[in-house]
């Protein structure tokens, strides 16, 4: 039985369309895969920056606590010195 030339040309056209779509999908998948890899790298970099920032914030908080304690000590010394001066004759020296 001879094959139908119209059916053969339709099959060939459908095959070409399928291959074109498959090739386009492969290209788009490659682009998406590449973009995803770039996003993963950026997320990794951001995670590292956040971790470093967390460390710096913790260090800064410690410094602020130390400064606050020093201010408290200085204020206490000032109050103590002022308390010692109360009632003294300024001319007595």
Automatic annotation (TrEMBL):
Top-level taxon of origin: Bacteria
Protein name: t-SNARE coiled-coil homology domain-containing protein
């Amino acid at each position: 039985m001879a094959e139908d030339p119209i059916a053969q040309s339709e099959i060939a056209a459908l095959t070409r369309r399928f291959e074109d779509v498959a090739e386009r999908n492969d290209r788009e998948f490659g682009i998406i895969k590449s973009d995803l890899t770039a996003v993963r790298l950026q997320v990794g970099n951001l995670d590292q920056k956040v971790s470093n920032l967390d460390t710096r914030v913790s260090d800064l908080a410690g410094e602020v606590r130390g400064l606050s304690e020093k201010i408290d000590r200085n204020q206490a010394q000032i109050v103590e010195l002022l308390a010692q001066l109360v009632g003294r004759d300024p001319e007595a020296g």
